[in-house]
Amino acid sequence: MSKIVVLGGGESGVGAALLAKHEGFDVFLSDQGQLKPEYQQSLLDAQIPFEQGAHSMDKILEAQEIIISPGIPEKSPIVKEIKQKNISLVSEIEFASRYTQAKIIAITGSNGKTTTTLLTYHLLKEAGLKVGLAGNIGHSFAKQVMEKQHEYYVLEISSFQLDRCFHFAPDVAVLLNITPDHLDRYEYQFENYIQSKFRIFQNAKTNTTCIFWSGDPVLQSHASSLPHQAQIKTISFDDSNANMLIQNDQLKGSSQFQLNLADAPLKGPHNAINMSAAILAAEAVGISAESIHLALKTFENAPHRLEPCGTWKGVQFINDSKATNVDAVFYALNSFKQPIILIIGGVDKGNEYEVLDDLVKEKVKGIICLGIDNQKLESHFGPIGTSIFSTDNLQAAVQKSIEWGQSGDIVLLSPACASFDLFKNYEDRGNQFKAMVKMLNDGK
């Protein structure tokens, strides 16, 4: 019996272990941290041996194949040791895709992939299809494959997951955009990250639908890497030959699909691209324009993505905590016409802030740097002339925004950085921000 080791005991790792056991493999799971009680119970129920708090390399290196958590970097000692032994090292996505005949829509991009994934899933679900939501969101893809309840899957795929995909071949592949992100995981080489994202197309065939925004500068400069053999569907702001054209506050499809953006559930030009991608993906699996229009009316985006979270004395607070890179902040600033007080900062991931300069000059009346080390932000934005306040305390940040804010202003939490210096994760950061805004309204 072949042995499979799973590294990482989170949602994806435990799901992969369960599927591997179901498929007849000898399975062992190892996690350097502590497993949640419910995950421990799932493994115990399935009689899968596991360890936590350490990695036993002698057991791990006995494997014929290792399924690795996307959170474990390529440069970690354990990965280097596995590579030296030439043991197959794959992601949960790669492993689980071997055991399903369901049609798969896979969505990646530096920004917007969660919104696009959720909307695509919503369009399919509302059309009555048996569809699962997985990947970088929702429940484990592998566990759902084991349960065989779905005929379609919509998967949000990160670059880390793609790095360990080799034969994964989605029926519909969506690449929204590529902007610098996670460069700390890619030796601070943008090209390495670009090549990771392009892996979404690496196994595209003539009947694969590949969807992308043709205006993305990186996709334009890497045109030779695009899957020209596939069924290509493009989104554009100015190309009348595009399959989805965003123009004059309207979204027009080559399939005669048309939507007034004023009536759309998502606002901002970046969300027009996200909606276009979701609509094209839904059309690719046979969803009608009528069904799409009906489903759009009932869609609600996930929290922490340009999420309105209250108004105080005419000042509107927006929680965009999911904006963990510079390009996401660029999109956020472009979504508002009102004066903005920007709360930015956290763990810098090799960010370059120059792309924000013109928008900051045009729209931002004050910048609040929120992090343990704000020196890079202060030195970059200081010379621009916008008011700057620096703190490592969220309450102080909100208080300063109240002092600066006037009726009609926007206070925008859009950090451009990871959250781990002051918060558990971006959700914790967003939830604490929302709680403080609620306290303002409660008069506390």
TrEMBL record:
Keywords from the UniProt entry: ATP-binding, Cell cycle, Cell division, Cell shape, Cell wall biogenesis/degradation, Cytoplasm, Ligase, Nucleotide-binding, Peptidoglycan synthesis
The protein's annotated pathway: Cell wall biogenesis; peptidoglycan biosynthesis
GO MF terms, alphabetically ordered: ATP binding; UDP-N-acetylmuramoylalanine-D-glutamate ligase activity
Top-level EC class: ligase
Compartments it resides in: Cytoplasm
Substrates-to-products reaction catalysed: UDP-N-acetyl-alpha-D-muramoyl-L-alanine + D-glutamate + ATP = UDP-N-acetyl-alpha-D-muramoyl-L-alanyl-D-glutamate + ADP + phosphate + H(+)
EC numbers, comma separated: 6.3.2.9
GO biological process: cell division; cell wall organization; peptidoglycan biosynthetic process; regulation of cell shape
Residues given in the record as ATP binding sites: G109, S110, N111, G112, K113, T114, T115
InterPro entries referenced in this protein's UniProt entry, alphabetically: Mur-like_cat_sf (IPR036565), Mur_ligase_C (IPR004101), Mur_ligase_C_dom_sf (IPR036615), Mur_ligase_cen (IPR013221), MurD (IPR005762)
One Pfam family linked to the record: Mur_ligase_M
Mur ligase C-terminal domain residues: 304-417
GO (cellular component) term, any one: cytoplasm
Domain Mur ligase central per the UniProt entry, residue ranges: 107-282
Source taxon at top rank: Bacteria
Main location: cytoplasm
HAMAP family: MurD (MF_00639)
Annotated NCBIfam families: murD
PANTHER family to which the protein is assigned, alphabetical: UDP-N-ACETYLMURAMOYLALANINE--D-GLUTAMATE LIGASE
Role description: Cell wall formation. Catalyzes the addition of glutamate to the nucleotide precursor UDP-N-acetylmuramoyl-L-alanine (UMA).
Family: Belongs to the MurCDEF family.
Protein name, entry field: UDP-N-acetylmuramoylalanine--D-glutamate ligase
